[in-house]
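check these C-alpha coordinates.
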Amino acid sequence: MHVQAQTETKVFTGCQAQIKQIFWGQTLDLELDNYNRKILALLQTNARLSWTEIGRQVHLTAPAVAERVRQMEEAGVIGGYRAVIDLRKIGYSFEVFVQVIVDSHKALDAWAAQHQEVLALHATTGEHCAILRLGLRSPAHLQQILESLGCLGKTSTAMVLSTQMEQRLRVPADQLENAAR
Protein backbone atom coordinates (compact mmCIF):
# COMPACT_ATOMS: atom_id res chain seq x y z
CA MET A 1 0.00 0.00 0.00
CA HIS A 2 1.46 3.36 -1.03
CA VAL A 3 0.73 6.31 1.27
CA GLN A 4 1.19 9.75 -0.23
CA ALA A 5 1.64 12.86 1.93
CA GLN A 6 -1.16 15.29 1.33
CA THR A 7 -3.12 18.05 3.01
CA GLU A 8 -6.37 16.78 4.47
CA THR A 9 -9.21 17.95 6.66
CA LYS A 10 -10.91 15.34 8.81
CA VAL A 11 -13.83 15.80 11.16
CA PHE A 12 -13.79 13.58 14.23
CA THR A 13 -16.97 12.51 15.98
CA GLY A 14 -17.76 14.76 18.93
CA CYS A 15 -15.47 17.60 17.89
CA GLN A 16 -14.58 19.54 14.79
CA ALA A 17 -10.81 19.04 14.80
CA GLN A 18 -8.88 19.88 11.68
CA ILE A 19 -5.66 18.18 10.76
CA LYS A 20 -4.18 20.70 8.38
CA GLN A 21 -1.23 18.73 7.17
CA ILE A 22 0.28 15.28 7.39
CA PHE A 23 4.08 15.51 7.49
CA TRP A 24 5.17 12.11 6.16
CA GLY A 25 8.53 12.32 4.48
CA GLN A 26 8.99 16.06 5.05
CA THR A 27 12.50 17.16 4.16
CA LEU A 28 14.54 20.09 5.39
CA ASP A 29 16.12 22.68 3.12
CA LEU A 30 19.18 22.45 5.34
CA GLU A 31 21.51 19.54 5.95
CA LEU A 32 21.90 18.71 9.63
CA ASP A 33 25.51 17.59 9.60
CA ASN A 34 27.46 16.65 12.73
CA TYR A 35 28.43 20.27 13.38
CA ASN A 36 24.80 21.43 13.24
CA ARG A 37 23.70 18.54 15.45
CA LYS A 38 26.33 19.43 18.07
CA ILE A 39 25.39 23.13 17.90
CA LEU A 40 21.71 22.24 18.42
CA ALA A 41 22.55 20.07 21.42
CA LEU A 42 24.62 22.84 23.00
CA LEU A 43 21.97 25.51 22.41
CA GLN A 44 19.27 23.31 23.92
CA THR A 45 21.40 22.80 27.00
CA ASN A 46 22.28 26.51 27.32
CA ALA A 47 20.98 28.98 24.73
CA ARG A 48 23.10 31.74 26.33
CA LEU A 49 26.41 30.25 25.20
CA SER A 50 28.45 32.62 23.06
CA TRP A 51 29.33 31.74 19.47
CA THR A 52 32.95 31.63 20.64
CA GLU A 53 32.21 29.06 23.37
CA ILE A 54 30.12 26.92 21.02
CA GLY A 55 32.88 27.14 18.41
CA ARG A 56 35.46 26.04 20.96
CA GLN A 57 33.37 22.97 21.82
CA VAL A 58 32.57 21.94 18.22
CA HIS A 59 35.90 23.04 16.68
CA LEU A 60 34.58 25.88 14.49
CA THR A 61 35.21 29.62 14.45
CA ALA A 62 32.66 31.95 16.06
CA PRO A 63 31.61 33.41 12.66
CA ALA A 64 31.10 29.87 11.29
CA VAL A 65 28.88 29.01 14.28
CA ALA A 66 26.92 32.25 13.88
CA GLU A 67 26.31 31.49 10.20
CA ARG A 68 25.18 27.94 10.90
CA VAL A 69 22.79 29.14 13.63
CA ARG A 70 21.43 31.84 11.27
CA GLN A 71 20.82 29.18 8.59
CA MET A 72 19.05 26.90 11.08
CA GLU A 73 16.89 29.83 12.23
CA GLU A 74 15.96 30.69 8.64
CA ALA A 75 15.14 27.04 7.88
CA GLY A 76 12.88 26.93 10.95
CA VAL A 77 14.97 24.31 12.73
CA ILE A 78 15.52 26.83 15.56
CA GLY A 79 12.22 28.53 16.33
CA GLY A 80 13.26 30.78 19.19
CA TYR A 81 14.99 31.13 22.53
CA ARG A 82 13.26 31.36 25.89
CA ALA A 83 13.79 31.36 29.61
CA VAL A 84 12.62 28.37 31.66
CA ILE A 85 10.55 29.64 34.58
CA ASP A 86 9.88 27.68 37.80
CA LEU A 87 6.12 28.14 38.24
CA ARG A 88 6.25 27.50 41.99
CA LYS A 89 8.71 30.37 42.42
CA ILE A 90 6.23 32.78 40.83
CA GLY A 91 3.20 31.76 42.88
CA TYR A 92 1.66 28.71 41.21
CA SER A 93 0.94 25.75 43.51
CA PHE A 94 0.36 23.01 40.94
CA GLU A 95 -0.27 22.09 37.31
CA VAL A 96 -3.04 20.08 35.70
CA PHE A 97 -3.74 18.56 32.32
CA VAL A 98 -7.32 19.00 31.16
CA GLN A 99 -8.65 16.89 28.30
CA VAL A 100 -11.63 18.49 26.59
CA ILE A 101 -14.32 17.58 24.09
CA VAL A 102 -15.71 20.69 22.40
CA ASP A 103 -17.88 21.50 19.41
CA SER A 104 -15.81 24.53 18.45
CA HIS A 105 -12.04 24.67 18.46
CA LYS A 106 -12.29 28.39 17.67
CA ALA A 107 -14.21 28.94 20.91
CA LEU A 108 -11.62 26.89 22.82
CA ASP A 109 -8.77 28.85 21.22
CA ALA A 110 -10.47 32.13 22.17
CA TRP A 111 -11.07 30.89 25.74
CA ALA A 112 -7.42 29.82 26.07
CA ALA A 113 -6.18 33.18 24.76
CA GLN A 114 -8.13 34.92 27.54
CA HIS A 115 -6.76 32.75 30.37
CA GLN A 116 -3.14 33.25 31.43
CA GLU A 117 -3.30 29.95 33.32
CA VAL A 118 -3.08 28.10 29.99
CA LEU A 119 0.55 27.06 29.55
CA ALA A 120 -0.09 24.92 26.45
CA LEU A 121 -3.00 23.88 24.24
CA HIS A 122 -2.73 20.84 21.98
CA ALA A 123 -5.32 19.67 19.43
CA THR A 124 -5.44 15.88 19.64
CA THR A 125 -6.90 12.79 18.05
CA GLY A 126 -8.81 10.19 19.99
CA GLU A 127 -11.74 10.55 22.37
CA HIS A 128 -10.79 14.10 23.37
CA CYS A 129 -10.33 17.05 21.01
CA ALA A 130 -7.64 18.88 22.94
CA ILE A 131 -5.39 18.80 25.98
CA LEU A 132 -4.62 21.91 27.99
CA ARG A 133 -1.77 22.30 30.47
CA LEU A 134 -2.66 24.79 33.20
CA GLY A 135 -0.70 26.43 36.01
CA LEU A 136 -2.90 27.13 39.06
CA ARG A 137 -2.73 28.77 42.49
CA SER A 138 -5.19 26.62 44.47
CA PRO A 139 -7.94 24.00 44.27
CA ALA A 140 -10.48 26.85 44.29
CA HIS A 141 -8.67 28.36 41.29
CA LEU A 142 -8.93 24.98 39.51
CA GLN A 143 -12.65 24.81 40.26
CA GLN A 144 -13.17 28.33 38.88
CA ILE A 145 -11.30 27.47 35.67
CA LEU A 146 -13.14 24.16 35.20
CA GLU A 147 -16.52 25.87 35.64
CA SER A 148 -15.57 28.41 32.98
CA LEU A 149 -14.15 25.78 30.63
CA GLY A 150 -17.17 23.52 31.23
CA CYS A 151 -19.34 26.01 29.34
CA LEU A 152 -17.48 24.98 26.16
CA GLY A 153 -17.73 21.22 26.55
CA LYS A 154 -16.84 18.14 28.59
CA THR A 155 -13.61 18.05 30.63
CA SER A 156 -11.45 15.43 32.31
CA THR A 157 -8.68 16.61 34.64
CA ALA A 158 -5.42 15.08 35.90
CA MET A 159 -3.25 16.83 38.49
CA VAL A 160 0.53 16.72 37.98
CA LEU A 161 2.15 15.17 41.07
CA SER A 162 5.72 15.42 39.79
CA THR A 163 7.57 15.85 36.51
CA GLN A 164 10.42 13.50 35.65
CA MET A 165 11.11 14.79 32.15
CA GLU A 166 10.09 18.06 30.55
CA GLN A 167 12.90 19.86 28.77
CA ARG A 168 14.24 16.85 26.93
CA LEU A 169 17.03 17.34 24.42
CA ARG A 170 15.57 17.13 20.91
CA VAL A 171 17.56 15.10 18.41
CA PRO A 172 16.99 14.87 14.64
CA ALA A 173 14.53 12.08 13.81
CA ASP A 174 17.14 10.07 11.92
CA GLN A 175 19.02 9.64 15.23
CA LEU A 176 16.10 8.02 17.06
CA GLU A 177 16.79 4.47 18.11
CA ASN A 178 14.12 1.80 17.61
CA ALA A 179 11.99 4.09 15.40
CA ALA A 180 10.03 2.53 12.58
CA ARG A 181 11.25 3.79 9.23
